[in-house]
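Posting for a labmate who doesn't have an account.
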Amino acid sequence: MGKLTYLALGDSLTAGVGDPSGEGFVGLYKERLHTVLKKEIQVHRKGRSGATSLDLYEWIRQEDVHPLIGPARIITISAGGNDLIQAAKRALWDGDDRHFTESLAACRRHVGEILAVIRQAKAGKPPYMIRLIGLYNPFPLLAEGRHWVNEFNRTLKGFTSKRIRMAEVYEAFLGNEQKLLAFDHVHPNPEGYKVMAEQLDVLGYSPLA
């Protein structure tokens, strides 16, 4: 059957926070990868609650994570949510929207740097695919929140290419927050993670299949 390595990088979503099993979308996506690609899937999960895009950039260059990039044929990245949350807290404190614009610019820069590190580590390696996880809005009643979630998603989508695609989770969660979010009203519950895995699935598996 052969084996493929899946590297899951990210924040609390990659860690599966909100799912009592701890599997989250990573475990569900692993099952789908196995079914579609007809390969054993070895998962390296590197998810940390509260991680910002800068944290992830610094993290993937460390000696315990960087060596995992080269062998990985599938990479998922959940980033940006904590950048947005931190900006929202600062804006709530002083009412200044520049926190959002600065956070958005920093997220764009850091995600670009993360992808550059991956490209360098993958040079000369077999085909691989990267899937970015789009942001949903846990505070749908806040108009400003909707605006900035969409801005962050536009930024992430700007990195898409033949090899890189973004899972569109915003629309899937919109109007379904009560059903898809955990008791903390921030992280997905098992049903929410199932929706995220489904959005990854619809992106296809090129160039691996």
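Reply:
Got it, the structure tokens are right above this. The chain has one domain: 3-201.
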